[in-house]
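Slide 14.
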Amino acid sequence: MTNETVETFRRDGVAVIRDVLDTGWLDRLAQAVETNMAAPGPHGANHAEEGGAYFGDYVNWQRIPTFINIARDGPLGELAANLMGAKRAQFFHEHVLVKEPGNSSATPWHQDMPYYCVAGPQTVSLWVPLDDVDEAQSLNFLKGSHVGAKTYMPRRFKTLEPLEGDTTAYEPFPEIAEDDPNIVSFAVKRGDVLAFDFHTLHDAPPNPMPTRRRAVSFRFTGDDARYVERPHAVSPPFPQMGLKLSMNDTLPEDWFPTVYAE
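Slide 15: predicted structure.
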């Protein structure tokens, strides 16, 4: 990864890194996704209302160790730390996302940060495709939307209504024109990685193609990550899963392992 890529990530809030994962890691990750789909965890679900299925599941790394191994023993942990400018990278969680052929479910514009029980200046999601994705079927990002670390109103994806709870502390969700010149997307191949800040606004189109669109998003935090109590439900629902922390606590290693340290 070049210094230019790091500069792009920090300036735009998103960058594409080519040929990060070799065939060995990609094959292991594809098998892990198949294992996950065959035996979903308690949060696994089909998010599609009609058309092809849209499978999603997360926080299965303890029973499917490939998800943590690719971050700790593979290149993703070090890549995350370098992008964030952090001395270490903590594994927040993995998120499996599989859109079947003919899927009609679009993910609306959002940023990830307000849905999470964490805050900090160093964050990154590494979206790893297991199938080649054309630009038209790839994620869209609003360049520079992470600047200032504004946290926008978290909304339900299907209705766009605010989450239940006191959301008055959030910024109103911005209007994003379809022809905004700051919207970017990238064609990606197996082995590439899309990196974006937790504050970067993004969306995802349906999958009208005749093949699956499989991806795993690996989320990382850096040196100064702290636990945040949100006034609404969070995703993943770590408090309901048994995590007991107070506001501004550091993230415990048994829940969020350090996968890279200088």
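Speaker note: The CA atoms of residues 96 and 247 lie 28 Å apart.
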